[in-house]
Amino acid sequence: KVMNLFSEGKEFRSKGDTANHVFPLQLNNETLGYLKFGSEGEEGVSAMETLMYYLSIFFDISDYFTETNIMKITPRKLNRLSVTLKEDDKDKKIIVKRRDSMSSILQNKPANGSFQTALKGKTLKSVINDNLTLSSVLPDDVSRMIQFVCTLFYTIILGMFDVNAGNIIFEGSQIKLFDNSRSLAHSSEFIIWGSNLQVAFRCALLELEETYRGLSKEIITILENEIARFKKKLPNIKSFFKRKEINDLIIQLPKGWFYEDAIIAAIEEKLSRISEKINKIKTCEDLVHITFPHYRFFTMLYIINEYLINKSVIDKVIINLNTKVSNLYKNTHGTK
Length: 336
Known about the structure:
By secondary structure, the chain is α+β, with helices and mostly antiparallel strands. It has helices at about 1-5, 45-60, 75-80, 100-105, 125-130, 140-155, 215-235, 235-240, 245-250, 260-275, 285-290, 295-310, 310-335, and strands at about 20-25, 30-40, 70-75, 80-90, 95-100, 110-115, 120-125, 170, 175, 190-195, 195-200. Helix 6 runs parallel beside helix 7 (about 215-235), helix 6 (about 140-155) runs parallel beside helix 11 and helix 7 runs antiparallel to helix 10.
């Protein structure tokens, strides 16, 4: 059924702006899920999304993650699949559409990918853009804070460094994490991502006021129980990584994405930091800064690095903004 729907799918992401080819699968104008194949063929980052879902099952936290499964397509099947690609023509500043076969896109090789179930809930991005609060999508006070703290804790421990607002979805009364390809950071401080300096943890939940709200004794107890549960599971994680279906995913990951010992060491270090200073955690902000002692420092380095890389563009934005403010002032107060 997935393959039949996929043959009618259309590429909705520009080919050059993502490590994945992403295809929506629709039935009667309803999106059922997304079929994803790495732009590098076998070395598809879609494997990380599947790995993270299976890892969430291992840690018994799959309710917070989007169901993701392995897909494999052979060249014979690829020849029958024709899709529309969107490409950015930066010189002409237009989007060009072209029709191509999947066998051509994936260089006529067997393709490993993933199928991620579509979610129908509201994204955190839309909540923020609509000037809403978290209580508007999660009205129960107790459940809201439990989910907020647990989601933040899981993203911290699993080294998730690109949990943007568009990938946090409120599905019914449950927080769900979507598109988790930027995960399992090798450090609890910072990482080098491509040519950029990257903080080893980023989560858009920190934009919400719940980050600074005092945590009750009940919430702290839940956090302590989660720490204990992760510590109990962690000694078995190497056996988990050695499972055939898991190892098949790991070997698909691009070079440098998966160093088992570094990943486990980072998880252990973060669990240790939190458990040792659990009595000092009064808010979720405390949780972040206790786990990442140099979070502010590396965040500032990241901002400086991004500015230097994009200096010309950012300077133009600042100049334009200053001009608008100046003109607004003149219109309001006159030239004096």
